[in-house]
Amino acid sequence: MAKLKAVSPIERAGREHEFRIKMLRGELTAGQGLRFIRKKLLGLSRDQYSEYCRISKELLKRIEKDDDSVSLRDIKKALEPLGYSLALVSQAEIPECLIEEYQQDHPSNPPRKGDKLLAEQALTSK
C-alpha cells in the first residue's frame, strides 16, 4: 500500500481551501479535481494513487482526463477511499465570505461576473 505524503497541517488547509473554492467556482472538472487531490493535496504519482485506491493506472488516467467512457461508479472508486464524493452544488450557494477570501488570496484571478451577486442572492433568500 502506498504511503501518503506528509504535508503540514497549515499547508494542507491552504490547499484544501484552494481546492474547495476552485470546485465551487466550477474551475475544475471532476477529473481535474481528482488530479488536484492526488498531486497537490497528497503528492502522489498516478502509480501510487491507483495502488492506494485499488484501481488501474489506465482508469485513473482516463478519469483525470475526463474521458466520456468513464462511469460514475469508476469515479466513485477513485474518490471514496479518501473520503470524497461527487455532488452537485449551485454556484448561488457559495457564501460571500468564500468569494471575498478567494479574491484576497488570488487578486490576479477575480471572480467571474455575477459570482458576488449570486452569493448575495443565496444569502438573502434564506
For the record, give the distance between the C-alpha atoms at the N and C termini, rounded to a whole number.
46 Å
Question: What's the overall average pLDDT, rounded?
Answer: 78
Put simply, the count of helices is 7
Order of helices and strands: HHHHHHH
Pfam families: HTH_3
Region (Disordered): 104-126
Domain HTH cro/C1-type: 34-89
Protein name: Helix-turn-helix transcriptional regulator
Task: Please give a structural write-up.
The chain has 126 residues and is mostly helical. It folds into two domains: 8-88, 434 Repressor (Amino-terminal Domain), CATH 1.10.260; 90-126. Helix content is 57%, strand content 0%. The protein has seven helices and no strands.
Outline of this structure?
The chain has 126 residues and is mainly alpha-helical. It is built from 7 helices and no strands.
